[in-house]
C-alpha cells in the first residue's frame, strides 16, 4: 500500500511538480538530523528530544499526505510524553521502516535520486 497520497500532495503543492520535488529534497535533507535526535534521545532516555523529533517528523510527513506515518509519529510523540522507553524504541523502528518506503516513493514520484545518509 502506498505511503504518499498523491491527491493530498497535489493539493498541497497546487499541482506544482517542482514544488513537490523541493519538498522531497528538504524532507530528505532534514531526516538524518531528526532520526539521530530521536535515536540518541531513546539511547539516553531524553524523552523530550524524542517527542520533539517525532513532532517535527509528524509535520513533515503530512506534506505528502502520509497519513499512516503521521499517525505513527503521533504515537511515538505520545510514548515519549509518557516516557515509555520500550514503546518508543518499537515505534521508532516501525516508523522508520515506513519512512524508508516514503523516500522510495518520493524518488519514483520526483525522479530524483534523493540520497540519504541515515547512519
List strands and helices in order, with pairings:
Elements: H1 6-13, H2 17-44, H3 47-62, H4 67-81, H5 85-110
Helix pairs in contact: 2-3, 2-5, 3-4, 4-5
Describe the structure.
The structure is a single chain. The chain is mainly alpha-helical. It has a single domain (6-107), classed as Four Helix Bundle (Hemerythrin (Met), subunit A). Helix content is 78%, strand content 0%. It is built from five helices and no strands. Helix 2 packs antiparallel against helix 3 (47-62), helix 2 (17-44) runs antiparallel to helix 5 (85-110) and helix 3 (47-62) runs antiparallel to helix 4 (67-81). The longest helix has 28 residues, at 17-44. The protein is elongated and about 40 Å long.
CATH class equals Mainly Alpha
Total helices: the number is 5
**What is the CATH fold-level name?**
Four Helix Bundle (Hemerythrin (Met), subunit A)
Q: Please give the domain count.
A: 1
Gap from first CA to last CA: 26 Å
Describe the main β-sheet briefly.
none
Mean pLDDT: 91
Rg calculated over all Cα atoms = 14 Å
Q: What is the number of E strands?
A: 0
Shape: elongated
Secondary-structure arrangement, i.e. CATH architecture? Up-down Bundle
Name the helicity range.
over 70%
Run of helices and strands: HHHHH
- Provide the CATH superfamily: HPT domain
Instruction: Classify the oligomer.
Output: single chain
Low-confidence stretches: none
**Class computed from helices, strands and strand pairing:** mainly alpha
Approximate strand percentage: under 5%
Amino acid at each position: 500500500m502506498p505511503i504518499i497520497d498523491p491527491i493530498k500532495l497535489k493539493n498541497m503543492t497546487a499541482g506544482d511538480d517542482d514544488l513537490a520535488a523541493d519538498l522531497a529534497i528538504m524532507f530528505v535533507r532534514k531526516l538524518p538530523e531528526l532520526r539521530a535526535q530521536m535515536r540518541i534521545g531513546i539511547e539516553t532516555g531524553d524523552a523530550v528530544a524524542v517527542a520533539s523529533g517525532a513532532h517535527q517528523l509528524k509535520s513533515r510527513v503530512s506534506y505528502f499526505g502520509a497519513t499512516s506515518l503521521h499517525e505513527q509519529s503521533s504515537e511515538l510523540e505520545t510514548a515519549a510524553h509518557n516516557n515509555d522507553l520500550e514503546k518508543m524504541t518499537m515505534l521508532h523502528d516501525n516508523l522508520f521502516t515506513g519512512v524508508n518506503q516514503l523516500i522510495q516513493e518520493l524518488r519514483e514520484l520526483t525522479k530524483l535520486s534523493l540520497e540519504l545518509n541515515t547512519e
